[in-house]
């Protein structure tokens, strides 16, 4: 029986994917260069059983985002794995319609992202970005003009308390004695408490938190949820941090809340367009920390997520159902298609 072929476009997040995949004799990994005509890329994708798909929407050409149109062109595809916890480049419903299993690497980069979020909280409360900007510009001012605040004992509100949010809650609670509030409609109060927070609704979280940090996926429900009205409900002088996804927060509304002085600062790792254009107003603000979706881009996190992905494809290659399935409804059809896998490929 032929091996289960997995294709990736251009490059991998970390060498650990290849090293882990090499341990599965039933698995074959194929690199598909992007520096060729689109039809060449599509032809190569038609020859694979699994697609290891970039998760960053602005790095992957739109033609190769996993949509109904792409899946129609790839009738033999059995499985898609995103390169991270997010899967912005993949339509789960389209995968389900096509009988294609979708998995992600949820939790694989939780430590890197959580540390990034807490680092932003500390830097913003201590006003490090403002002090650095003033010193570099030669703007003389008293130290008292840059007086900061400490994280210890403050109220931290987490919108979403999954893998990353749980680790953030642990850090700020144990290291800094913070009270942690969490809004997560998919978890009950007992589960939230077990993860180190008190379950509240979003309005209470915004009104009571000194720091609001986003840790939820982009979805139709979360798109635009942090609006001008949301920022207005936050405490005067509060800090806003997001390592989640662009489009969840309204960037112009956030810029206005910062410019008015209502919010004291913001830490932004994710953007509607990544990277944002140089003219973006938030880039000109001294009280904003700017990073380019790099919270989970650490040696450790990249090695971990690629190892998890390779193991998921190895499960599929050896006939097992992998963990971290996004579209669970497709499992019966996927299993039927996987059972038909052979020298002639999968049946649609």
TrEMBL record:
Ranges of residues in domain D-isomer specific 2-hydroxyacid dehydrogenase catalytic: 28-327
PROSITE patterns, alphabetized: D_2_HYDROXYACID_DH_2 (PS00670)
Coiled coil regions, renumbered to chain: none
Membrane spanning residue stretches: none
Ranges where the D-isomer specific 2-hydroxyacid dehydrogenase NAD-binding domain occurs: 118-295
Family: Belongs to the D-isomer specific 2-hydroxyacid dehydrogenase family.
PANTHER family: D-ISOMER SPECIFIC 2-HYDROXYACID DEHYDROGENASE FAMILY PROTEIN (AFU_ORTHOLOGUE AFUA_6G10090)
Name of the protein described by the UniProt record: Hydroxyacid dehydrogenase
């Amino acid at each position: 029986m032929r091996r289960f072929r997995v294709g990736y476009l251009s490059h991998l997040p970390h060498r650990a994917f290849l090293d882990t995949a090499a341990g599965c004799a039933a698995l074959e990994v194929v690199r598909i260069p992007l520096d060729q005509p689109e039809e060449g890329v599509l032809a190569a994708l038609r020859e694979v059983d699994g697609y290891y798909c970039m998760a960053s929407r602005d790095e992957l050409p739109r033609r190769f985002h996993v949509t109904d149109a792409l899946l129609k062109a790839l009738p033999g595809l059995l499985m898609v794995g995103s390169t991270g916890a997010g899967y912005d480049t993949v339509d789960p419903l389209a995968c389900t319609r096509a009988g294609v299993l979708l998995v992600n690497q949820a939790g694989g980069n939780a430590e890197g992202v959580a540390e990034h979020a807490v680092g932003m909280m500390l830097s913003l409360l201590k006003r490090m970005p403002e002090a650095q900007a003033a010193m570099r510009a030669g703007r003389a001012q008293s130290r008292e003009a840059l007086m900061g605040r400490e994280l210890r004992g403050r109220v931290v509100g987490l919108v979403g308390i999954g893998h990353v949010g749980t680790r953030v809650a642990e850090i700020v609670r144990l290291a800094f004695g913070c009270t942690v509030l969490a809004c997560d409609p998919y978890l009950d109060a007992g589960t939230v408490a077990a993860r180190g927070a008190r379950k509240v609704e979003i309005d209470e979280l915004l009104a009571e938190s000194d720091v609001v940090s986003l840790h939820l996926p982009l979805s139709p429900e979360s798109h635009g949820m942090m609006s001008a009205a949301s920022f207005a409900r936050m405490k005067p002088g509060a800090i806003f941090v997001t390592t989640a996804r662009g489009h969840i927060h309204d960037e112009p509304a956030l810029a206005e809340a910062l410019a008015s002085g209502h919010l004291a600062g913001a830490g932004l790792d994710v953007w509607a367009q990544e990277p944002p254009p140089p003219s973006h107003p938030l880039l000109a603000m001294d009280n904003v920390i700017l990073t380019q979706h790099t919270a989970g881009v650490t040696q450790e996190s990249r090695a971990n997520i690629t190892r998890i992905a390779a193991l998921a494809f190895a499960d599929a290659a050896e006939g097992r159902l992998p963990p971290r399935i996004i579209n669970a409804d497709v499992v019966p059809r996927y299993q039927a298609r996987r059972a038909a896998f052979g020298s002639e490929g999968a049946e649609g």
